[in-house]
Amino acid sequence: MDTNTTLAYKVIQEVQKAVIGKDKCIEKIMMAILSNGHILLEDVPGVGKTTMALAFAKALNLKENRLTFTPDVLPADLTGFTMYRKETNEFYYQPGAVMCNLFLGDEINRTSPKTQSALLEVMEEGQVSVDGATHPVPKPFIVMATQNPAGSAGTQLLPQSQMDRFSICLQIGYPEQNEEISILKGRLAENTIETVQPVLNARQLIQLQKECQNIFIHDIIYEYIVALIHATRNHHLIELGVSPRGTLALTRMAQARAFLHGFHYVRPEDVHSVFCDVCTHRILISSKARISKVSAYSILKEILAATPSPSVRSRH
Is 306 left (phi over 0), alpha (psi -120 to 50) or beta? Predict the structure, then answer.
């Protein structure tokens, strides 16, 4: 394992101090960050979504802003706005919450669709447009948002275009009994977030992201990824398959997983591991699937099993 991979794992180890028993979830969030993607955490309240986000913010040592999305949050709270300064007789830009490296959005589906859509441009293009002027956000820029399950009181569905901009959507889930006991002991003794130590800075993270982009992908892996994506577009229980943006997200996540596991090339298992996390929130299942209580996740697992996996030898 080389130095940079070790550095990435140190971030994971620091987050594990605050989030107990969710190692796979932590690792996949780190993959999304390395792939320069955005993360959506969807689960019931109280399972540690915000704790997870805050722990990553501290371990990555990035400039972070946090905003809780309530119905009265306005688009300008995110993007910023222009104000008139009487002393100079000029307008100046007042930055919004997204002007940071790591933007933490709590309960993103509690706010209005207009405010939700304010994130579209910045998540895709790394900039905001205010009164005809364009303002780039700092690099790297990562959105880590949480949302309550659809149908929870006071929530509104995110538009499909918004969901598509998140590289992965994860569910943390309830802890096991022994894990919950450890959580109780830790929280009663101290604030676990305070035990997390900074590991990286913005410059180092950008370097790690560049290394991930250089992970080799064989043509047969490209073909395998596209075959999986096309299977989502042709499945009889899926009304809307994965978009080309999703194809790119799957490829970058596979590269990040290979990097994190110390490989210089993408293997089929790297694609397997992240396929459902990248694609579940991107597809719309048919009414027939919903009536039959067939989940998007189970359909994607079926696609994985039905699509032949290639064999890749080490590249020397």
Answer: alpha
* Prediction pTM value: 0.90
In this structure, CATH architecture of domain 215-306: Orthogonal Bundle (1.10)
Residue type, 72: D
Residues 6+ apart with CB under 8 A from 194: none
Neighbouring CB atoms inside 10 A of 228's CB total 23
Instruction: Convert the pLDDT of each residue in 47-106 to its tens digit.
Output: 777 888 889 989 999 888 999 898 889 999 999 998 888 888 888 889 999 999 999 988
Measured CA to CA, the distance from residue 19 to residue 36 in angstroms comes to 22
pLDDT (tens digit per residue) in 132-144: 889 999 999 999 9
Contact 30, 260 (CB under 8 A): yes
CATH number of 3-204: 3.40.50.300
Residue 269: enclosing H or E segment and its boundaries? helix 268-279
**Sign of the torsion angle spanned by Cα atoms 239, 246, 264, 143:** negative
Q: Which residue in 277, 278, 25, 38 sits closest to 143, CA to CA?
A: 38
User: Do 246 and 164 meet the contact criterion of CB atoms below 8 Å apart?
Assistant: yes
